[in-house]
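[job 0417] fold request received: Cardiolipin synthetase
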Amino acid sequence: MDVLLTNPATDEVSRSFDEFWNNIRSKPANKLIRKSSVDHELVVKSRSFRHGFQIPNGKEYVKAVSQRLHLMQDRAGDIPFFWTESEVKFDSPTKVKKPRDRYDLMWSTNMQPVIDKLQKRLVIVTPYFVPGDAGVEFFRRLRAKDIEITIVTNSLESTDVPIVHSGYAPYRKELLDIGVVLYEVDGREKQKLEKDSLRSWFASRSSLHAKLFVFDDQTAFIGSPNFDPRSFYENTEIGVSLHSSELAQVLDSALTDLVSQDAFRVMKEDNSLVWIKGDEVFHREPGASWFKRASNYLMRFLPVESQL
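[job 0417] inference complete; emitting C-alpha cells
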C-alpha cells in the first residue's frame, strides 16, 4: 500500500528527514562501516556479470526489461489519483531516548482529533497486532459508543514474526467478546517454500505487510506504524492522513474483497476459537503445524510483550 504525495505534504516529509538525519544519534555510514580492500573474487564476478549483457541471451533479457519499463510508463496515466487534503504524522527522533509517557513526541497523539470524531466505523489493517490491555480498553470505549471495529492482521501461518503472534493471540477472545470483528490472512502456501533455513520454517509467502487505518469512510491513514507497543513506543514511524471519502470508500471496498477471498473470520464457539473462510471451518490455527502451534504457545510466557 503506497502513497504518492506532493506539496505541501512533501515539505513535511522533508522536515522529518532533516530532523532525523541532523539528529545527534545519526552517524555517517563511513563512520560505521569498516573499510576493506576490494575483494578480488567480487571484481572477477562483476566482470562476468557485465559480459553477460553482451551475449545474445543477455541482450534479450535487457530488451525485455526495457520494454516492460516503457509499458509501465505508458500505463502510469491510467492510475486514478485522489486529490485531497493530507497531513503527515511522524515521531520525533528524540522519542527513543525519552520516557514512554512523552506522548507529545509520538505520531499517534496527532491522530487523536480524528479518533475523537469517530461516529460509525474503524478499520485497521496491521501485520503485527499486539493491543495489550490499553489497546483492548481503547476498543472497549469505542464499542461503548456503538462504533464498529474491524481488524485485519496475519494468522499464525502467514506471519513472518511468530513471536508477535504470541503477543496478539491471548487477546482474541476478549476482543471478540466486546464485539470487535477479527480477520486473519490465509497463510496456507499455494506454492511451497524451500525449507532451507530455520527462519524459512516459520515464514510464509502470503504474509500481510500493508499498514492502514480507515475512519468512518472519511479519512485514511497509511504509513509505517503497526498497532503494537513497538510502533507506539520503540520505533520511529511516519504516515499520512488522507481526508477523502472517495479514497476511504475505495479502500474499504478493496478490504472487503480481500477478507472474503484471502482471510479467515475469527469467531467464538463454546468459548473456543474457530476460523471460517467460505465453507471451511477450522478449530485450530489454520495451516499451522503442531510444532508451530506448540512453540508459539510457549512464546506467550516470555516477558517481552512491551517490546513486540
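[job 0417] notes: Residues 197-204 have pLDDT under 50 and may be disordered. The chain has two domains: 42-74, 80-307.
[job 0417] exit 0
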